[in-house]
Amino acid sequence: MTEAATNLAHPQAASAGLFSRIAAGSVFPVVSILAGLVIVWYVFAVILNGPFQRDLDRRAGETPGFVEFVGKTWSQPKPTLPAPHQVAANFFENTFLRKVTSNRSLVYHAWVTLSSTLLGFAFGTALGILIAVGIVHFTSLDRSLMPWIIASQTIPILAIAPMVVVVFAAIGITGVIPKALISTYLSFFPVAVGMVKGLRSPELMHLDLMHTYNASASQTFWKLRVPASVPFLFASMKVAVAASLVGAIVAELPTGAVAGIGAKLLSGSYYSQTIDIWAALVAGSVVAILLVTVVGIVGNIVERSMGGRPA
Amino acid sequence: MSGLKLSWQAGLALLFCVAAAIMLPLAGAAAPYSGGTTALIFVLVAGAALASALPVPNLISAAILFVGAHGAAWLLIAGITGNEGTARTSFFLLIIAGWLLAWRCVTVLSVLRPVDRLANTLLRLLIPVIFGAWILILWEAITRGAGIPFVLLPPPSAIGVRLANSLPILWADVNQTIFKSVVAGYILGCGAGFATAILADRVPFLRRGLLPIGNMVSALPIIGVAPILVMWFGFDWPSKAAVVVVMTFFPMLVNTVAGLAASGHMERDLMRTYASSYWQTLFKLRLPAAAPFIFNALKINSTLAMIGAIVAEFFGTPVVGMGFRISTEVGRMNIDMVWAEIAVAALAGSVFYGAIALVERAVTFWHPSVRGG
């Protein structure tokens, strides 16, 4: 429908040549914008790393030509803005060439973060579903709890992260649980809100039909409300899993930088290892995309096996 | 039909009351409760539980439950203050009984459907307030009653005292973090996102390219750019504002682009028959139609902006700011100060969100969700 609307608004696009037909898809625009970003990145690497390089050259008494100068700004060991190929090389080296158990391996750090993300995500999803079921079934819970759930997200909950970690460490609980709790806090909200919407999504007609079948409340719940809420559940789980990764990364900041993507970011910022920071960022993004994709795929499989048709 | 209104909460509360009476005294050692106070607590709880079954109007039984539950909780907490850690099982049983009565009170109130609009609004506020108050009451009673060490979880009253005593420090932090970093970053980030969305709307090529990228970015842990930006822009507030700009840009972009596509075909055709220009259509039809989406982004961004600014301060900051205060006071084990800072952050976040919600109601008064249709 959007496509048709665009064609109506710009009639020339429909009849133009090959270029605009390629441009009408979304792959070509995405790729060209990404390519544009990479070029801008290289240009900024020259601009931002330039002053320091000029300083170095002046002290060494060198006067490099333009091409040589640009090449040097792209290969500093601790650049202000590392060039994309430096980040890519660092990422590749620390992901594929190191042993997985090595402290410098990004796979190892990503795994540490991933484990607390997944635990927190599981807790958060369970808690969110539980709250949603309670809210749908008890009016008093709906009216007393719902405003607080919304309010709980207007407060910057990540601010509590350092305290939760330190306090749990004080009573002897360290490791994955405190980090997972922060992920839980961030991920229960989207699931709770989505599931309340989902469990209430059956229309009055359907509920009336269940009524005419003399279905009990639990029968209505399991045979009508739960199946109706599945698409909502997976949509909100996608948001929740991304939030829970953010929670896990931030929770790693105050632990004194032991392991994990957050710790990698912090130690990188302590020692000005900019390339390491960028590589850790790339690793975090890869994990995020993988998680969201996996949740999406599982959602598709579940919906198809339940007889749902893609809308 | 006896007309009695029986409920499981009141029944259970009575049962706990009896159990508490068997397991007296309320607290050991110093015996802070006089015989009269103990008797009064029992009368309040048991009386409210029994009276709630009387066939009186709902409003009256709710009032009785309210007074019974909160009066008993007040007496119990007032007694245990200064005698931390001495509470016996009986104390906790009575607190739970009080909580059950408050639950019953909320249930009774939830059923009420006042005709008067003002009363309805008050009721909508009162129910969550009772719930929130009981979280604080249980927190206070458990930390004081069980004598939980202060450095683990201070009771809310101690946090309140700390908050009141360190207002100048808290104000300086709020000034640094919110009025400098958050506001500057929020305005710049939302403005840039909005402008880019308009540009993307003008150039379909950009829209088709930016929308998938924007959707993907929303899943990424953007907060990770904080150390990089702190390195670039220094320790003071501009670096925090930059983090906020990066965090708020994409939600605004994606939501505005979606909102600009929200106006109906018929309406757009009508604008065409009026021979209105692109900008006329934009300002008179499409932007108003996009307003709910834009406000949605503004609301999401209000939370993201607070998180961005506070977390960015963990990576380096001058010696003032909410994130700085939280991370240093945790290190010094001044947990009550941390909680005070969190309370301030929560208040600021809620006010920020509430202000945007109010503006939204005023601007999108025509929308079904605001009209209540």
From TrEMBL, chain A:
InterPro entries: MetI-like (IPR000515), MetI-like_sf (IPR035906). The chain crosses the membrane at residues 27-49, 106-136, 148-173, 239-266, 278-302. Its main location: membrane. Residues 106-299 form the ABC transmembrane type-1 domain. Keywords: Cell membrane, Membrane, Transmembrane, Transmembrane helix, Transport. It is found in: Cell membrane. PROSITE patterns: ABC_TM1. It is a multi-pass membrane protein. One of its GO terms (cellular component) is plasma membrane. GO terms for biological process: transmembrane transport. Belongs to the binding-protein-dependent transport system permease family. This is ABC transporter permease. It comes from Mesorhizobium zhangyense.
UniProtKB/TrEMBL annotation, chain B:
SUPFAM superfamilies: MetI-like. The chain crosses the membrane at residues 6-26, 33-53, 59-79, 91-112, 118-139, 151-172, 178-200, 212-235, 241-262, 304-326, 338-359. Gene3D superfamilies: MetI-like (1.10.3720.10). The keyword Membrane applies. GO terms for cellular component: plasma membrane. Signal peptide: none annotated. Keywords: Cell membrane, Membrane, Transmembrane, Transmembrane helix, Transport. It is a multi-pass membrane protein. GO terms for biological process: transmembrane transport. InterPro entries: MetI-like (IPR000515), MetI-like_sf (IPR035906). Residues 193-363 form the ABC transmembrane type-1 domain. It is found in: Cell membrane. This is ABC transporter permease. It comes from Mesorhizobium zhangyense.
